[in-house]
Design brief:
The protein is mainly α. It has 3 domains: about 80-145, Dna Ligase, domain 1 (2-Layer Sandwich), CATH 3.30.1490; about 150-230, Dna Ligase, domain 1 (2-Layer Sandwich); about 235-400, no CATH class. Helix content is about 55%, strand content about 5%. Strand 5 (about 370-375) and strand 6 (about 380) form a beta hairpin. Helix 2 runs antiparallel to helix 3, helix 5 packs across helix 6 (about 180-185) and helix 11 (about 275-285) packs across helix 14 (about 355-360). The protein starts with a helix and ends in an 11-residue tail after the last helix.
Length: about 400
């Protein structure tokens, strides 16, 4: 029994020792495992922190670059103003150099970084660009690449303006250069593609208010205006069926001749109710190959246009400073002088609006051959030269009395 007790105690004692050992080995195992895992875990945590810091730095850098791209550029010592630069190709490095030379960017390094990091797939347009001091890097880039989302402006073009006057407004509105627009309006291949007869798009640049993107290629502006004219003409021809055919039969008119006469009507009167009468006078004159008028329109604005666009051809244009001079109306060297040349001038002298074109398609039915200013802003119409002379005498009397008149030349 005693031996059995000792063996039982030994078994109980050995069991406790085994349990402690087991716990000890378990504790030692856990402690050793934790000790062995800490260096690897620390390294993983360190790399994660470095990665997060790098990502944060990158985000902050890109965000800072984006914010910088929105800041307005320097206006320069001269203040804000248009600047023209030329790019030989789409190379962004060259573009940044040109921008820096022109004083349009303050930090060429940041501009290069912006183009390469934030606009890697954007191609810059080669050629001439109309820019402005004070633009942000983002807007400069959008204009150089002519991106669809770049800034735009509303440009109002009144009836009766000629190409150069339109071009000047386009340049002031930062749409395109004036000289480039005039050149595009005379470009033979563009006119052929647009089915415009004659040496220029004069008469086809429809007067309207356009929403135009800044730094638009001038040929695109010409194309849009000509298409607008064609759209309006199509509606007018549909409104007055057979009108063009009647004018073709009676006067040999086509589309361009309609626009040519409409441009003269537009320049002669600004009153809509007078336009059909003025158109009838000119159509009657074209049909009257004898008598006082002998097929001559005798319109001052036609001689003015010749001096504006072909001054070297006519000696009388040397003294022209904006007002009609008697010598201009006597000069046969001016191809547009309808006092000396019968029929229509070589082409439109302005860009007419809808009312002027419609007046030619649907003129008043009259036998008038003359008109002159009445001294009150409108005109007096006459059938004979004698009636016209009396109207001219009345106008001169009003002028002598101090009332303003518009002109005294026979019409």
């Amino acid at each position: 029994m005693e031996g059995a007790g000792r063996r039982s105690a030994a078994r109980r004692s050995g069991g406790r020792k085994v349990e402690r050992a087991a716990r000890g080995r378990g504790a030692s195992g856990r402690s050793g495992g934790a000790g062995r895992g800490r260096p690897g875990g620390d390294r993983r945590g360190s790399w994660l922190k470095i990665g997060l810091l790098g990502l944060l730095a990158g985000v902050l850098s890109v965000s800072g670059l984006l914010v910088w791209s929105l800041l307005p550029g320097s206006a320069g010592e001269e203040g804000g103003g248009s600047v023209v630069i030329w790019l030989d190709g789409s190379d962004k490095g060259q573009a940044v150099e040109r921008l820096a030379e022109a004083g349009l960017v303050q930090s060429p390094r940041l501009m290069r970084l912006y183009l390469s990091v934030l606009l890697p797939g954007v191609e810059l347009d080669a050629g001439e660009h109309l820019l402005r001091r004070g633009l942000s890097p983002r807007e400069l880039s959008a204009r150089l690449a002519r991106l669809p989302g770049r800034s735009s402006t509303r440009v109002a073009l009144p009836e009766g303006w000629h190409r150069r006057k339109i071009a000047e407004r386009l340049e002031r509105s930062e749409v395109c250069l004036a000289d480039a627009f005039v050149e595009a309006s005379e470009r033979a291949e563009l006119l052929t593609a647009l089915d415009v007869a004659g040496p220029s798009a004069e008469g086809y640049l429809f007067p309207a208010t356009y929403e135009l993107a800044h730094n638009t290629p001038p040929e695109d502006v010409v194309r849009r205006m000509v298409k607008e004219t064609r759209k309006r003409l199509t509606k007018l021809f549909a409104k007055h069926p057979g009108a063009l055919e009647r004018l073709r039969a009676s006067h040999g008119f086509g589309e361009r001749e309609v626009l040519t006469l409409a441009s003269i009507v537009e320049k002669e009167t600004g009153h809509g109710e007078e336009r059909p009468l003025v158109a009838s006078v000119f159509l009657n004159r074209l049909a009257a190959t004898d008598g006082e008028t002998r097929g001559r329109l005798q319109s001052d604005p036609t001689a003015v246009y010749g001096c504006l666009y072909e001054p070297s051809l006519a000696p009388s244009c040397a003294a022209f400073e904006g007002r009609v001079l008697p010598a201009m109306l006597r000069d046969p060297a001016n191809r547009y002088n309808t006092y000396r040349h019968a029929g229509l001038p070589p082409g439109p002298i302005a860009n007419p609006g809808l009312e002027a074109v419609e007046a030619v398609l649907a003129p008043a039915q009259s036998d008038y051959l003359f008109f002159v200013a009445d001294g009150a802003g409108r005109h007096t119409f006459s059938r004979t030269f004698e009636e016209h002379q009396r109207a001219v005498s009345r106008l001169r009397a009003l002028r002598t009395a101090g009332s303003p008149g518009l002109d005294t030349e026979p019409r």
